[in-house]
């Protein structure tokens, strides 16, 4: 039996989803329609599809523990030409911290809990038990391979695999952008009278309703954010009652729905322009 096929079957028997890699550490197309990239999928085949297969056959999505699939005709031909065996860490409830150089290894030894390690060509794989989002270049020389990714099988490694720590999960979390919108400058009330909207209850209820409208939006979030900003400014923008704290609440709600800081600022500015408040 081919060495790579034998390794793949052994790993699959241990519940590790496997797939064959060709030269350059790239997956094969694992059905007749996709061999030699005939299906028109991405040239490096790192991601699934598109193709006309009844099931995904590219990249991590091809990984399987089914021995019948692993030994099927197309796969058997792939194993004969394979340069390595890969596996889907997330599919085995694992995460691989791929350390690509000596500096990355030194950082891991200082910052991460000890776990099972596997030597690689240029560095080490640190294996933790538990899945997470995959990401490249989370810091210099460090990639995360877990869900929707594959890693080369380089041996069982040494040491005891420990639970995925929060410090590793945090590597893929981007720091939120802090928004400090400028205070809104608006005209004084007509005739210099007292603002009818300055009661805290009225204003707070209006801002809270605006936050809720943004938070509950399920589609057209860009448009919802703009219309909400416009509504708030049309009601409270001319009397000078909005403070930086109020606008920050609205920006925070928009960002929680995935809006960028740039879009929040643009939407606010456009609303001011529409109401004729930007010139003041």
Record the SSE blueprint.
Blueprint: H1 3-13, E1 18-22, E2 26-27, H2 67-70, H3 73-81, E3 84-87, E4 94-99, H4 102-111, E5 116-119, E6 124-129, E7 135-139, E8 142-145, E9 151-152, E10 162-163, H5 166-169, H6 200-215, H7 221-236, H8 244-256, H9 261-274
Parallel strand pairs: 6-10
Antiparallel strand pairs: 1-2, 1-3, 3-9, 4-6, 4-8, 5-6, 7-8
Helix pairs in contact: 6-7, 6-8, 7-9
Written description of the protein model:
It is a single chain. The termini are far apart. Helices cover 35% and strands 14% of the residues. Strands 4, 5, 6, 7, 8 and 10 form a six-stranded mixed beta sheet that branches. Strands 2-1-3-9 form a four-stranded antiparallel beta sheet. Helix 6 (200-215) packs antiparallel against helix 7 (221-236), helix 6 (200-215) packs parallel to helix 8 (244-256) and helix 7 (221-236) crosses helix 9 (261-274). It is elongated, with a radius of gyration of 27 Å. It has helices at 3-13, 67-70, 73-81, 102-111, 166-169, 200-215, 221-236, 244-256, 261-274; strands at 18-22, 26-27, 84-87, 94-99, 116-119, 124-129, 135-139, 142-145, 151-152, 162-163. It is of the alpha+beta class and 280 residues long.
């Amino acid at each position: 039996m081919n060495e790579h096929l034998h390794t793949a079957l052994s790993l699959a028997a241990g519940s590790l989803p496997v797939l064959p890699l060709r030269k350059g550490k790239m997956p094969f197309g694992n059905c007749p329609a996709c061999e030699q990239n005939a299906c028109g999928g991405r040239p490096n085949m790192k991601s699934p599809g598109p193709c006309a297969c009844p099931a995904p056959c590219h990249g991590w999505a091809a990984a399987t523990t089914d021995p019948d699939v692993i030994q099927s005709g197309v796969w058997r031909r792939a194993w004969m030409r394979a340069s390595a065996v890969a596996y889907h860490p997330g599919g085995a409830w694992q995460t691989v911290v791929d350390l690509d150089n000596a500096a990355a290894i030194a950082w891991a030894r200082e910052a991460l809990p000890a776990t099972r390690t596997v030597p690689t060509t240029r560095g080490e794989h640190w294996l933790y038990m538990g899945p997470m989002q995959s990401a490249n270049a989370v810091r210099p020389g460090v990639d995360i391979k877990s869900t929707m990714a594959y890693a080369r099988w380089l041996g069982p490694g040494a040491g005891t695999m420990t639970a995925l720590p929060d410090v590793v999960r945090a590597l893929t979390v981007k720091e939120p952008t802090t928004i400090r919108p400028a205070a809104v400058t608006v005209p004084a009330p007509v005739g210099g009278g007292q603002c009818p909207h300055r009661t805290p209850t009225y204003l707070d209820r209006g801002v809270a309703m605006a936050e809720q409208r943004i938070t509950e939006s399920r589609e057209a979030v860009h448009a919802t954010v703009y219309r909400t900003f416009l509504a708030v400014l049309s009601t409270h923008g001319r009397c000078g009652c909005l403070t930086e704290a109020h606008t920050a609440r609205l920006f925070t709600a928009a960002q929680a729905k995935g809006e960028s800081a740039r879009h929040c600022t643009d939407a606010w500015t456009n609303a001011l322009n529409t109401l004729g408040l930007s010139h003041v």
